[in-house]
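Incident review: delayed structure delivery

Summary: a single-chain prediction request sat in the queue longer than the usual turnaround. Root cause was a stuck worker, restarted by the on-call engineer. No data loss occurred. The affected request and its eventual output are reproduced below so the record is complete for anyone auditing the incident later.

Affected input:
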Amino acid sequence: METVAAQEQAGRQLTWPWFLVVVVVYTAILQGVGKLIEVDTSGTDGEFPNVDAMVHNVLIPIGLSILFGAAVVTWLGWWGEVLTYRVPVRRWVRWVPISMLAAAVVGLNYGHLADQSAGLVACLLVLGVFVGLGEELMFRGIGVHVFKRAGFSEGKVALWSSVVFGLAHLSNAFGHGAQAVVQAAVVSTSGYFFYLCLRVGGIILLPMLVHGLWDTSLFSSLIGTDPSPYAGSFLLIGLQVALIIVLLVRRHSIEPAPDTDPDSRRPLDPAPQT
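Output delivered after worker restart:
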């Protein structure tokens, strides 16, 4: 049931069941277009062996999904709302985006990238930008606001937007089989971290940046005809595990204390005595 506050929001309304339909169309674009124009990479050791495969198998489908997400936001009239999210958190949560950005920069496989063509490296960078733009616009942009408008508590907004984010990755089962289930579970936790990045920054550009750089680092060992394991990737995995543990322990101390001014994030001044 929509709340009074939700009804007073500008633009059209999108209920969460219809948001799930939007996500199904979004994933159909990614998977369907990818299958229609894909370049066969079965004769190579990697998913991204060359520029042609990168462009046809991932960049074009993701680019179209970005256009779809932007069209949905435009139709809803939510651009002003989607670009910002002014819900404060406690100061310690700032370490989530800081640590993720640092780990992504350190975890890049610089040696492997130096052996690849400039075109392939450029495609990797574009892939990072596209993933950050497309997935954050859909799930931290549209998704978060759908659940917020529906009257969900902030904890449930974080939970369900992250769960839907993970479930959307089950569509990868068409190409990756059962391992897509594990990926979906891992991606759900990542979605929660990206949600916290949105809370920390107050603007969707921060989770877009963190998400894009994170995935660029993860994929940096996978491009080319000779993808190879890289120790830096274990840094990303280790940080994700550490963040999960920290957030499980401190999940009740994410929201500001009741006596905190949500605008300044400082304790409220005591009421003047009369």
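Verification: Residues 170 and 176 are 10 Å apart (CA to CA).
Action items: add queue-age alerting; document worker restart procedure.
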